[in-house]
């Protein structure tokens, strides 16, 4: 049976086990996970937080990471400004990016979620409001969520991947991991 790890990646951590070629030693998955034979099924940018799945089975890894399988990924996104219905419609219907139009997504305004504090904290501007969006996509273009919200006119301030398919962060603190059930 495949081994699956659900990891809550903190801000600033690379989505890989080594940091070759960097003059400064940045934190990687190996600073948090000492389990031989598991590899990331997908990536999160260094400046994004939240759920990463790691497994020891290539077929499961492909099913999780490959856009052909259209596995949903839900993000909690703090954006600058207060998106209106037109902006949400853009996100939901597909938004034109430099590398093509995104697939339809689900987007809704939510109350500020009860999340851990981020280190370092996001910048706060007293003259500009911010809001939270729950965004679910079924593809994984490079920095897609950030590019989508920016194209809709609302730049991302904080990005937390909350779930991938049926797997979610519930109860997993930043920098810690739990065994998951491979499905």
Pick out its properties.
single chain; alpha+beta; Alpha-Beta Plaits; 2 domains; 3 helices; globular
Question: Describe it for me?
Answer:
- The chain folds into two domains: 1-69 and 167-183, 2-Layer Sandwich (Alpha-Beta Plaits), CATH 3.30.70.580; 72-164, Alpha-L RNA-binding motif (Alpha-Beta Plaits, 2-Layer Sandwich).
- It is 14% helix and 30% strand.
- The protein is α+β, with helices and mostly antiparallel strands.
- The mean pLDDT is 91.
- A hairpin with a 2-residue loop joins strand 5 (96-97) and strand 6 (100-101).
The tally of helices reads 3
Please give the radius of gyration in angstroms: 16 Å
Backbone structural class? alpha+beta
- Uncertain regions spanning at least 5 consecutive residues: none
- The H-and-E topology, N to C, reads as EEEHEHEEEEHEEE
Number of structural domains: 2
- The proportion of residues in beta strands is 25-35%
> Per the principal axes of the C-alpha atoms, what is the gross shape?
globular
